Task: inverse folding
């Protein structure tokens, strides 16, 4: 699928496209340098970071401004995780660099994703999972027709200032 150019609310131009092989090293570096945190007090362990690492079984849609990656969607093909019974499903995760929140990049990434998935006839379901209190992400996905299927009680255990706390997720 071809790259698509957008203009954000501040008139900055950005490009949405499927990650190409030539860009993988730059993307891996981006994944290693962006902060993955719920808040400044939350500690991430090695297993958390592994989930965010590059995986060649996944596909990635990236948003760039002047060739700098400012956001992405990870497409995880569930057939690699669960086999035949989930081969019609993908799970997607979106991440936008904090300085670029609320600028339309998430909407552009999801638009591109849905257009891209239409070309993949074997995909019948798109899933996502997020924290129950992530209202911006919930609003974004609902605006595209996603529906909440379940509340995942105590889905995430976080260490906040050396105290364990549980947060719900939605699916």
Result:
């Amino acid at each position: 699928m071809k790259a698509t150019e957008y203009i954000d609310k501040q008139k900055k131009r950005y490009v949405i496209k499927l990650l190409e092989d030539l860009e993988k090293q730059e993307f891996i570096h981006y994944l290693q340098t962006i902060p993955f945190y719920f808040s400044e007090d939350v500690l991430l362990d090695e297993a958390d970071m592994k989930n965010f690492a590059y995986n060649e079984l996944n596909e990635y849609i990236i948003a760039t401004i002047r060739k700098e990656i400012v956001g992405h969607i990870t497409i995880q093909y569930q057939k690699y995780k669960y086999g035949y019974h989930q081969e019609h499903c993908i799970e997607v995760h979106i991440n936008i660099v904090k300085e670029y929140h609320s600028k339309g990049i998430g909407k552009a990434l999801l638009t591109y994703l849905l257009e891209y998935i239409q070309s993949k006839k074997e995909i019948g379901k798109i899933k996502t999972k997020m924290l129950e209190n992530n209202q911006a992400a919930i609003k974004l996905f609902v605006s595209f027709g996603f529906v909440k299927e379940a509340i995942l009680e105590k889905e995430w255990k976080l260490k906040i200032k050396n105290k364990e706390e549980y947060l719900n997720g939605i699916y």
The mean pLDDT is 83. The two ends are 28 Å apart (CA to CA). Strands lie at 4-7, 13-18, 42-43, 59-65, 68-77, 89-96, 125-128, 130-131, 151-160, 163-170. The first helix runs from residue 24 to 33.
